[in-house]
Amino acid sequence: MTFTLTDDARMLKESARDFFREQAPVARLRKQRDAKQNGRDPELWREIAALGFAGVIVPEEYGGAGLGHVALGAVLEEAGRTLVASPLHSSACAGASALLLAGTDAQQAEWLPKIAAGDVIATIAIEETAHHAPGKSKLEFEGGKLSGEKKYVADGHIADLFIVAGADALYLVKGDAAGLTRRELITADSRGAADLKFDAVAAEKMNGGAEIVDAILDRARIGLAAEMVGQASEAFELTSEYLKTRRQFGQVIGGFQALQHRAAKLFTDLELTRSCVLAALDALDRSSSNIAEYASLAKARASETVHLASNEMVQLHGGIGMTDEHDAGLYLKRARVTEALYGGASFHRDRYAGLLGF
């Protein structure tokens, strides 16, 4: 199967690449980290939203572009290349998907335009333990009030709207709701997250049950996999360029066969992963009946590939790759977070096998 971007999606990808490289290079993340902003960069978010990136999958009737998931994946990949610290994935992918799949007509009309405009940052709250275990929830919902806890909510420290997953239902909670407390987390990738506690918090019930939670998660996983392809691609390209220019023992180190083999292995894995992620994004746009399989395949492959790419970036750069002065460590730290988020490689290999009846 051959995948080609539409003209609109191609223009969006090129626009994203130019913008992120010029306005949000890795140096901007480093500056945020050193200033202990923990992922807070409202000026950058306003610029991202102004370009339409926050509303790529939001239908035009709600102020979005309605370009679909392949187009959003292209934007997320470019963001991944420069480790852009923004709630783009949390809000434009996971949050918007949750409203599109499970929101009532009134909820969609109220929140989707705000998400598309970047006026509201939405995110999904899934986990209650240290391990990814969707569906295992102790949340209590009674009389329109929600009580319980959620762990490691991506961008939860800056979100304005939470889509909270219970054992068999979804709930909409405003970020300023009485009884909601957040414990901000300082994360390895300098992006930030939060643990949430709900103490009789006013919440609106959304449509659907456990199957909708899985569907939302699959969209979040596929979008994250697209970002991870960007991270791995940039890590590979920077490392490849280093192998071609770094001289040792009288020749460029890329001339050593052992290093060539490692680079070739990474390139092959990267191309296979890119194919898996593109297939998954296309499956979303086609409303395929086996999106769950595509999602777990894409997330498992992306987790393994970004792990290898970030490791090789450090190791093949040698001593400089171990220093904070070099960007390799920033790629490695972001890789470790995205690998685990919404299920790691082992989780998704097991899920994929189960879906296929193994």
Describe this structure in words.
By secondary structure, this protein is α+β, with helices and mostly antiparallel strands. It has helices at 7-23, 26-34, 42-50, 69-81, 88-102, 105-117, 210-245, 257-285, 291-316, 328-340, 345-355, and strands at 122-125, 140-142, 145-154, 161-165, 170-174, 180-185, 193-202, 204-205, 247-248, 251-252. The chain has a four-stranded mixed beta sheet. The longest helix has 36 residues, at 210-245. The chain is globular.
SSE arrangement:
Blueprint: H1 7-23, H2 26-34, H3 42-50, H4 69-81, H5 88-102, H6 105-117, E1 122-125, E2 140-142, E3 145-154, E4 161-165, E5 170-174, E6 180-185, E7 193-202, E8 204-205, H7 210-245, E9 247-248, E10 251-252, H8 257-285, H9 291-316, H10 328-340, H11 345-355
Parallel strand pairs: 1-4
Antiparallel strand pairs: 2-3, 3-7, 4-5, 5-8, 6-7, 9-10
Helix pairs in contact: 1-4, 4-7, 5-6, 5-7, 7-8, 7-9, 7-10, 8-9, 9-10, 9-11
Counting structural domains, the number is 3
Instruction: Estimate the helix proportion, in percent.
Output: 40-55%
CATH names the topology of the largest domain as Butyryl-CoA Dehydrogenase, subunit A, domain 3
Strand order within the widest sheet? 1-4-5-8
Secondary-structure content class: alpha+beta
Computed over alpha carbons, the radius of gyration is: 20 Å
- CATH architecture assignment name of the largest domain: Up-down Bundle
